[in-house]
UniProtKB/TrEMBL annotation:
Residues 26-95 form the Heterokaryon incompatibility domain. Pfam families: HET. The lineage of its organism: Eukaryota, Fungi, Dikarya, Ascomycota, Pezizomycotina. It comes from the Eukaryota. This is Heterokaryon incompatibility domain-containing protein.
């Protein structure tokens, strides 16, 4: 699993991989997708997508996680590489555990 961390000095986000059993406490964003306006995994890696509506949701989640004393947070649209079917399948199955 990958978790996001806000980079306070200069903004932006960092994706950090963790094994499921070693992941630290983290916040999860529950949201409704807006077609074509969510920041994807690849867009986050190359630092594009800041003009999309979904970027504001990621920023909000990072701010709320920090306010709640959490360093990491998870947003499905950008923590899952949807171009890899095995990763997508694993992520979907883990949502229903």
């Amino acid at each position: 699993m990958r978790l996001l961390k806000s980079l306070l000095a200069g903004g932006g986000f960092e994706l950090t991989p963790f094994s499921d059993d070693l992941a630290p406490p983290y916040a999860i964003l529950s949201h409704t997708w807006i077609n074509g306006q969510e920041v994807t995994y690849n867009e986050l890696l190359v630092e594009t997508g800041a003009d999309k509506h979904g970027y504001a949701k990621i920023c909000f989640c990072g701010e709320q996680a920090a306010a709640d004393g959490l360093e990491y947070f998870w947003v499905d649209t950008c923590c899952i590489d949807r171009s890899k079917s095995d990763e997508l399948s694993t992520a979907i199955n883990s949502m229903f555990r």
